[in-house]
Amino acid sequence: MNILIVNQSIMDMCASFVMLLTAMVDVEGTRMSRDSSYDQFVCRVWLTRVPLWALMVKSTYGILMIAFERYFAVICPVWYNVSIVTASIAVLPS
């Protein structure tokens, strides 16, 4: 099982969940105060959709990593088998 594909699937699932939350939760921004830490959080993080954009960027980088891994597996198969597969086997617990 390729760990990059599993990681990509989990990241996409989290991004879908956050996108669903941002579509469903409507925060009324007219009665916010500067003194409340909850209002500051909502204004700075939730209304700007920082979690959604962060997960989208991480998903894009994950796709790039999968593309580079596949590129090296096709272009340099001997080097890929020696270095990447051996390193992966060494990392796996026995």
Largest sheet: none
Query: Kindly, what is the distance between the CA atoms of the first and last residues, rounded to a whole number of angstroms?
Result: 16 Å
Give the helix tally.
4
Number of strands: 0
Query: What is the mean predicted local confidence, pLDDT?
Result: 80
Outline, from the CA principal axes? rod-shaped
The radius of gyration is 20 Å
Instruction: Report the structural category.
Output: mainly alpha
Q: Helix-strand pattern, N to C?
A: HHHH
Number of folding domains?
1
**Residue fraction in strands:** under 5%
**Which spans of ≥5 residues are poorly predicted at pLDDT below 50?**
none
Fraction in helix: over 70%
Topology:
Elements: H1 3-24, H2 37-46, H3 50-75, H4 77-91
Helix pairs in contact: 1-3, 3-4
